Amino acid sequence: MIKVGFVGWRGMVGSVLMQRMVEESDFALFEPVFFSTSQVGKNGPEILQQKTLLHDAYSTHDLFEMDMILSCQGGTFTEDIYPKLKKMGWHGHWIDAASTLRMTDDAVIVLDPINQKTIDEAYNRGNKTWVGGNCTVSLMLLAIHGLIKENLIQWVSSMTYQAASGAGAQNMRELIIQMGELNSSVKTELADPQSDILKVDQKILSTMHSSSFSTKNFSVPLAGNLIPWIDQDLNDGRSKEEWKGQVESNKILNGSYDPINVDGLCVRIGAMRSHSQALTIKLNKRLNIEEINELIDSGNQWVNLIPNSREYSIKKLSPAAVSGKLDIAVGRVRMLNLEDNIISAFTVGDQLLWGAAEPLRRILRILINKAQSS
Ligand code: HSE
């Protein structure tokens, strides 16, 4: 039976992945081996009523025995272990959530509903490295899949509203802690419906600015605020998150579809785990709004086209409506009053599902199927 090693399965993305793999009965297809960086020798998760033991994630000897390794352990682990295994002559498949290897020639960025063809061709060439894409990139491409398929997009500007989960589990906790600290600072005023709202606002602001406000992870307040920069400063005016939009999108599309120009600003907001993006799309052809809606709706089975009305938009097109689901909600589709063939769309998708765990779960299954049928 094919042996698949899991590293980083207990973290946030790893846990969502495990949950999805149980839901889809993936564990029946191979022998899972669980690795740990800190709990070696202890009990691992129970899989199909079988107990498992935790192996040492730093033991290249143990990892070498795996046919496939799926890592959600993060970039530092990848940087350390991947080259060592390659040097040892390991020929297994490496599946990774971290961005470290994404843009290397060895790696395919996996988003199979869009680049199955690229995956198949790379597999046949002997490719062994498969990396999940940046969350906003994967979620955006799935949202506009129907337009991509017809090569209709000249450029797209994505202005993002990214959830705390993209920054990590500790950041999600910090967001809620910040909310609590803000709330506590005006408890008395809130209890009195007649209290002066400007005084409440003033107190909230001074709580945010106080040195005791919890900002260890975000370094600034996110609750009641926003952060207009995500990831490193590339010192050319762009953030690394913004740079990824263009390069990763086109690496995914390459070989299947025409390239498209992608750019925009990436912003962190106080949502928990679903990323939203306001898209401005320049089409290279004149279409009417019904045709555009039809194309978007037929992009793939996960797109959920939300009618462009107030009622539907506020109820169905939000992180609160989408979180925990595989749906890619797309709404606010209309012709913009700017120049010809420019449309708007607003899309929301779960950052931990299609934005992280799901493409990895699916490539594992694809590779298992290929290995079993060869
Ligand atoms: N970089 C993303 C974010 C998450 O910070 O939201 C991972 O793709």
Description:
This protein is an alpha/beta fold. The protein has helices at residues 12-23, 60-64, 75-87, 112-125, 135-143, 145-149, 169-185, 187-191, 197-209, 240-253, 289-297, 310-316, 319-322, 353-373, and strands at 3-7, 31-36, 55-56, 68-71, 93-96, 107-110, 129-132, 153-161, 261-263, 274-283, 303-305, 328-335, 342-350. It has a seven-stranded parallel sheet with strand order 3-2-1-4-5-7-6. A hairpin with a 6-residue loop joins β12 and β13 (342-350). The protein is globular and about 70 Å long. The mean pLDDT is 97. Bound molecules: L-homoserine. Residues 134-135, 162, 166-167, 230-231, 241 line the site of L-homoserine. L-homoserine (HSE) is lined by residues 134-135, 162, 166-167, 230-231, 241.
Strand content: 15-25%
Radius of gyration: 22 Å
Distance between the termini: 14 Å
Order of helices and strands: EHEEHEHEEHEHHEHHHHEEHEHHEEH
Low-confidence region ranges? none
Unique ligands: L-homoserine
Largest sheet: 7 strands, parallel
Map the helices and strands.
Elements: E1 3-7, H1 12-23, E2 31-36, E3 55-56, H2 60-64, E4 68-71, H3 75-87, E5 93-96, E6 107-110, H4 112-125, E7 129-132, H5 135-143, H6 145-149, E8 153-161, H7 169-185, H8 187-191, H9 197-209, H10 240-253, E9 261-263, E10 274-283, H11 289-297, E11 303-305, H12 310-316, H13 319-322, E12 328-335, E13 342-350, H14 353-373
Parallel strand pairs: 1-2, 1-4, 2-3, 4-5, 5-7, 6-7, 8-9, 11-12
Antiparallel strand pairs: 8-10, 10-13, 12-13
Helix pairs in contact: 1-14, 5-10, 7-9
The site of L-homoserine has 8 residues, from loops.
